[in-house]
Specification:
The protein is built from six helices and three strands, in the order αβααααββα. It has about 180 residues and is mostly helical. The chain has two domains: about 70 residues, no CATH class; about 90 residues. A three-stranded mixed sheet has the order 1-2-3, covered by helices on one side. Helix 3 runs antiparallel to helix 4. It is elongated. It starts with a helix and ends in an 8-residue tail after the last helix. The model has no long low-confidence stretch (mean pLDDT about 80).
Length: about 180
Amino acid sequence: MSVKKTISIFLLFAFISVVDIQAQNQKIGFIDSDEIIQNMPEYSGIEQRLNLLTENWRDEIRQREREIEDLEDEFEAREILFTDDVRSRRINEIQTKRNELDQFIEEKFGPRGEYFTRQQELLEPIQRQIYDALERVASQNAFDFVFDRSEDSRMLYTRQEWNLTDDVMLELGIETTGN
């Protein structure tokens, strides 16, 4: 074996040992933000406001569904009496009502709906409080990484010294701000 290969192997093992030692000294923690939120006094008021809002929408949805059912029942009962033109208009009316109901549900409960927008507005101050408290706790206790196990795994806090973003961007030839 050549001297270069021996030195390379030695350096590789030394590097792996240093990385292993550093990894053993890292402090990793986690929180369950759902549990924290559920235990915050402010949350019950928010939950009540959202429930009241959604109950009104659900009432309207039930009313619209009954209206569609009534139109369908009437259509089925009298369909044989209708001309082709009247039959076509009634089918279109029922389909229009269904489309309006679907649109209403999407506007209120869809991914970009009013419910989720309102929920986000109401929960944002609580989430900010949790994050600020987490940052203080993590910093005071020298945690390197903190994950949230409530929904999807998210890294909520990291020591800046472990941030490799600028290095990776430079490696890719992307100019960095140099923070």
